[in-house]
Amino acid sequence: MKKLINDPRHVVREMLEGYVAANPALAMMDEFHVVLRSDLPEEPAQRPVAVISGGGSGHEPAHAGYVGEGMLSAAVVGDVFTSPSVDAVLAAILATAGPAGAVLIVKNYTGDRLNFGLTAELASQQGIPTAIIVVADDVALRDTVARDRRRGIAGTVLVHKMAGAAAARGDPLDRVAEIARSAASHVVTMGVGLGSCTVPAAGRAGFELGPDEIELGLGIHGEKGVARGRLPPVDELVDRMLEPLLSELAVSSRQPVALLVNGLGATTAMELAIVTRRALATLTERGVTVERVWTGNFMTALEMPGCSLSLLPLDEERQELLDHATTAPAWPGNGRTGQVKHVVAPQLTPTAADAAAEGPLSPTMRGVVSRIAAALDAAEPRLTALDSHAGDGDLGASMMRGAEALRALADGSYETPQRLLRDIGESLRRSIAGSSGPLYAAALLRASHILTGIERPTDAQWLDAFEGAIAALQDIGGARPGDRTMLDALVPASLAWRQNGWLAGASAAETAAAATASMRPRMGRAAYLGDRAMGQPDGGAVAVAIWLKAIEEALA
């Protein structure tokens, strides 16, 4: 287990201290793990209805992230995945509420219900009328337990928002409670986990999953789901998650809803955006109008990979409350949606008509290009492994995209060597990500220019074009021989070609690429690793040797 912590016994306190230190509108209690607004009136009679929530820690940014004007008055935080104590909840009520009363928003877990419920009784006896709102939004349990026995998960955040907004506009206790209770009874959530999480005090994962397994319908405490299955493509998975949500809501055609796409802690923003894309598309196809959408980490389970989807039917008042301003640091904004706008890209370079004219070298050039594409495809595992050793591991995939671009060249591209090199350069520039695409494009465009008007270049003219391409790489990339780059295969190839002919050049590239394993990198991502990058040859140099060898084999 690797976590950025000191003592597992102190993680909650130290977390809250850091959070409050970075948010001056918040304060915290000395004796209890309670975060509260720092701007509340000192006189209890002047305080509006207090909205308080909480539960175990490990769900960040819940619950402290939702403390602020227009949302929670206080958050009461227990140990990791453990309900806070009655004393802590009561302290939060006394510090933030007055005669106007308090609304306690509780996720449907036994410990939370008991501790918050008992505290409500104690607060009422001290003259603070207190209402309890229990959120049980987990539809995964709909075939397992009664509705009032389901777990409370990410949909709770939407209840926080509406209750806090109602209190901020001055609604009385009964009305704030009614709004929160109504939202809690209608919000539905479905979660999926791609792996487990590690509680700091336990030091080990709660369960194990195979490489292609998922837990469908899980909660927020590192527990297993209601079913285990294979990991399908994300579009299929999102549709499976939405099905019980829509069935539970039984929303009418064009019914407006709010959508919350919640990460469980280890899911990247990239993945959550892909989930959001599919959820919006599917809901639209089903006739559901998504008026508000939020994507991000709202209620997590430590570092669990996975996500949940929450839906809440909207009316005019709910939309108004969701749109109400708040200073809570973790609330992302109004979530307004709009139709995706597509803009047609301008024509960057004029494209000649695809005249399928044949030149004297057209058949030969087709054979060479075909052999290069096949060689790059076959080398993908090797190039990926080499690039993973010293870079970001994308070289193999980039070269496969380059191979695909080569196979997609138009017939007219093979008319002359000049046009072929130009078209390959333009194609690779568009298809290969990172630095490889523009580097290859610059080299090929320079070589193309050197062969302008030459239908059947001599061996010397091909060599001039090859050396021109190398010069372009040095000009645009700044690398030199010895920096452990593709140049360390290209330059020896050109020298051997000039001295002993083309076949010697291809062989020299292969030998030189292997020798880069003992070079200390001075350019690119590998340079950041220093000596740690040594021991394996440079992936870019090996790729050069691969396509030069393919040319040799095609010409043979």
Distance between the termini: 56 Å
Instruction: Give the strand content.
Output: 5-15%
Would you list the SSEs in sequence order as H and E? Answer: HEEEEHEHEHHEEEHEHEEHHHHHHHHHH
Structural class category: alpha/beta
Number of strand segments: 12
Shape: elongated
Task: Calculate the mean pLDDT score and round it.
Answer: 91
| Most strands sheet | 6 strands, mixed
CATH topology annotation of the largest domain: Rossmann fold
The domain tally reads 2
Strand order of the largest sheet: 1-2-4-3-5-6
- Top-tier CATH class of the largest domain: Alpha Beta
User: Can you give the helix content as a percent range?
Assistant: 40-55%
Annotated CATH homologous superfamily of the largest domain: Dihydroxyacetone kinase, domain 1
CATH architecture of the largest domain: 3-Layer(aba) Sandwich
Based on CA atoms alone, the radius of gyration comes out at 31 Å
Low-confidence stretches: none
Description:
GO terms for molecular function: ATP binding; glycerone kinase activity. It holds the Pfam family Dak1. It comes from Chelatococcus asaccharovorans. Keywords: ATP-binding, Kinase, Nucleotide-binding, Transferase. This is Homodimeric dihydroxyacetone kinase. It is built from 17 helices and 12 strands. The radius of gyration is 31 Å and the shape is elongated. It folds into 2 domains: about 10-200 and about 210-325, Rossmann fold; about 360-555, Serine Threonine Protein Phosphatase 5, Tetratricopeptide repeat. It is an alpha/beta fold and about 550 residues long. The strands form 2 sheets. A 6-stranded mixed sheet has the order 1-2-4-3-5-6, with helices on both faces. The two termini are about 55 Å apart. The chain has helices at about 10-20, 85-95, 110-125, 155-170, 175-185, 235-250, 270-285, 315-325, 360-380, 380-390, 395-405, 415-430, 435-450, 460-475, 485-500, 500-515, 540-555, and strands at about 25-30, 35, 50-55, 75-80, 100-105, 130-135, 190-195, 215, 225-230, 255-265, 290-295, 305-315. The model has no long low-confidence stretch (mean pLDDT about 90). Helix 10 (about 380-390) packs antiparallel against helix 17.
